[in-house]
Amino acid sequence: MDDKLKLKSQVCFPIYALSREIVKHYRPFLDEIDITYPQYLAMMVLWENEPQTVNQIGDKLNLDNGTITPLLKRLAAKGFISRKRKSCDERVVEISLTESGKQLKSKAEKVPQKVVESMGVTPEDLMQLKAIVLKILDRAK
Fold first, then answer.
1. Distances in Å between the alpha carbon of 137 and those of 3, 12, 41, 45, 90?
2. Per residue in 18-76, pLDDT tens?
3. Beta bridge partners of 46
4. In terms of Cα–Cα distance, which of 99, 96, 29, 22 is closest to 57?
5. CATH number 3.40.50.2300 given to 37-97
6. For 109, which DSSP code?
7. Cα angle: 48, vertex 106, 39; to 5 degrees
8. How is the chain split into domains, by residue range?
């Protein structure tokens, strides 16, 4: 068998496995605040700046409308966000945080540190990894 086709020769597999492992570490902490990892990402986008349209949130998370819309509907059902069609263009849905969604931020602020501790790595290791990943992502565009 050609070495190029062996799993141990692939760069993508350990990155894929690491991604799954990191999300696994997030899960118990996000369960405590009743959101999933993709919902957590959407909430972070809104905590940074709101209101935003469905398309704006999807663009920031690299998710298409078919993926982001059900995710946002579930957050709305939990009472964390509100969805409102713009009066000037009813095709555009604007997303805002509810009071409950704003309050969730204080609980979520503890999650990153808990994840770092549960993974047993230093913040510096993660920053170095992030820098390499961002460099590759930037070149791939």
1. 25, 13, 18, 19, 34
2. 999 999 999 999 999 999 999 999 999 999 999 999 999 999 999 999 999 999 999 99
3. none
4. 96
5. no
6. T
7. 60
8. 1-32+110-141, 37-97
